[in-house]
């Protein structure tokens, strides 16, 4: 009869390598011959002649469109197993824009609670370089603005009306993985009192409904 201690030792030996391998799950993709990756601690890297170097990403760039195409759902699911629970709940609400939202939570973790309350705000944060017309991402500035004034200061920084009505409308958006082409028209529409009134009284906002209400702005 085998000794119980041998059995416990045997089980540890069999399971330990599996755990070590699972901790090595990373997201890796290429864009025009350059490789990028994100590790389990949400560190972003870019490969260069000197090897992998830390990289501050701009989710508004085409690099993230490549990530959406290249990273399989299976890989995402394996990776998300090691993402903290709150961040995982947020990421699970996105598909095409998931890598962009991952950058937001990696560089501005203090935003996670507010983004969970209004997930549709995450694409606006991810696209901040385009929405604000800056050349480089401003992650530290975003974190400082939010730390100082909370979600309303963040809305103002993004060029959105800093009001409860804005948050209410964002919370009504049933599909927070908004197409990039919609973000600027939505932002402009939220400054129109009539549009604000209409959107507040729609029970649930789909992308189709948002496109309809912003049609004139999209055509401009």
Question: Could you give a short description of this structure?
Answer:
This protein has 220 residues and is α+β, with helices and mostly antiparallel strands. It has one domain (25-219).
Describe the model.
The protein is an alpha+beta fold. The chain is 58% helix and 9% strand. It has one domain (25-219). It has a four-stranded antiparallel sheet with strand order 1-2-3-4. A hairpin with a 5-residue loop joins β2 and β3 (44-48). The protein is globular. The N and C termini lie far apart (81 Å).
Topology:
Elements: H1 4-22, E1 27-31, E2 34-38, E3 44-48, E4 51-54, H2 62-70, H3 73-80, H4 85-91, H5 98-107, H6 112-117, H7 121-126, H8 128-132, H9 139-157, H10 164-172, H11 180-189, H12 193-200, H13 207-213, H14 215-219
Antiparallel strand pairs: 1-2, 2-3, 3-4
Count of distinct structural domains: 1
Unreliable spans? 6-22
What characteristic shape results from the CA principal axes? globular
Taken as a percent bin, the fraction of beta residues is 5-15%
Structural classification: alpha+beta
| Overall pLDDT score | 87
The total of beta strands comes to 4
Computed over alpha carbons, the radius of gyration is 21 Å
Q: Helices and strands, in N-to-C order?
A: HEEEEHHHHHHHHHHHHH
Query: Taking strands numbered 1, 2, ... along the chain, how are they ordered across the largest sheet?
Result: 1-2-3-4
SS field, number of helical segments:
14
Distance between the termini: 81 Å
What are the salient characteristics of this protein?
globular, 220 residues, 9% strand, four-stranded antiparallel sheet, alpha+beta, single chain
């Amino acid at each position: 009869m085998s000794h119980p201690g041998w059995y416990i030792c045997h089980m540890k030996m069999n399971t330990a390598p599996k755990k070590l391998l699972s901790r090595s799950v990373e997201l890796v993709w290429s864009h025009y011959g350059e490789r990028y990756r994100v590790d389990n601690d949400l560190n972003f890297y870019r490969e260069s002649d000197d090897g992998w170097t830390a990289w501050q990403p701009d989710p508004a760039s085409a690099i993230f469109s490549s990530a959406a195409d290249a990273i399989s759902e299976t890989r995402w699911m394996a990776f998300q197993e090691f993402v903290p629970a709150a961040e995982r709940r947020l990421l699970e609400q996105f598909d095409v824009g998931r890598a962009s939202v991952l950058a937001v939570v990696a560089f501005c973790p203090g935003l996670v609670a507010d983004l969970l309350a209004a997930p549709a705000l995450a694409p606006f944060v991810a696209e901040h370089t385009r929405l604000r017309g800056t050349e480089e991402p401003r992650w530290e500035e975003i974190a400082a603005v939010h730390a100082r004034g909370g979600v309303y200061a963040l809305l103002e920084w993004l060029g959105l009306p800093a009001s409860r009505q804005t948050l209410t409308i964002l919370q009504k958006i049933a599909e927070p993985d908004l197409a990039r082409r919609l973000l600027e028209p939505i932002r402009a529409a939220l400054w129109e009192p009539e549009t604000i009134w209409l959107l507040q009284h729609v029970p649930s906002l789909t992308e189709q409904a948002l496109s309809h209400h912003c049609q004139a702005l999209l055509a401009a």
